[in-house]
Amino acid sequence: MRAFTRLTAVAAALPEADIDTDRIIPARFVDRRPQDGLADCLFHDERFDGAGQERADFALNRPAWRDAGILVAGANFGCGSSREHAIFALLDYGIRAVLSPGASEIFANNAFENGLLMVTLPPDTVARLLTLLQARPGHRLTVDLERQVVADSDGTEAPFAIDPRRRRCLLEGLDTLSLTLRMTDRIAAFEARHPG
């Protein structure tokens, strides 16, 4: 897993609430291996028409947001079925962080396990960011995990909370297996104290 410390990137606005995993990646693409690439599947049915042509009105097809690394989304992002491919599609597209008033718990857990930072911000902060991004397409934000703030180029900062273990894992690029392997001495000591 790639470490996440600080990201400054174009932020795209997806203001709608309840964007579910079937919209993020339609079910017909979940048999594809993530190693084969899933960027073209991301929001497929909203990004492309029936003939495979881009829909100009979809956010990520706008020239200013085409290379977004951050999404600012409405509440309950990633709801619906537990579909890890949704995280893989976001990461493969280049999205490293999603800022919203809240995300599906299962989606947020899957995101963390795969290096996608989910940042929960107050609804008024998200509304302010969405208004800013819609007025200034191509605007860049900074997500600083070390300091736990989202910063705007004008100096405005919004703090966010994150579980300390998750923060450490993301900062160091550790998935659950890597973290467990770092603790083999402690695991062996525990097993020695508790035989059988």
TrEMBL record:
The keyword Lyase applies. One of its GO terms (cellular component) is 3-isopropylmalate dehydratase complex. InterPro entries: 3-IsopropMal_deHydase_ssu (IPR004431), Aconitase/3IPM_dehydase_swvl (IPR015928), AconitaseA/IPMdHydase_ssu_swvl (IPR000573), IPMI_Swivel (IPR033940), LeuD (IPR050075). GO terms for biological process: L-leucine biosynthetic process. Gene3D superfamilies: Aconitase, domain 4. Keywords: Amino-acid biosynthesis, Branched-chain amino acid biosynthesis, Leucine biosynthesis, Lyase. Its EC number is 4.2.1.33. The lineage of its organism: Bacteria, Pseudomonadati, Pseudomonadota, Alphaproteobacteria, Rhodospirillales. It holds the Pfam family Aconitase_C. GO terms for molecular function: 3-isopropylmalate dehydratase activity. Residues 1-122 form the Aconitase A/isopropylmalate dehydratase small subunit swivel domain. This is 3-isopropylmalate dehydratase. It comes from Stella humosa. NCBIfam families: leuD (TIGR00171), PRK01641.1 (NF002458).
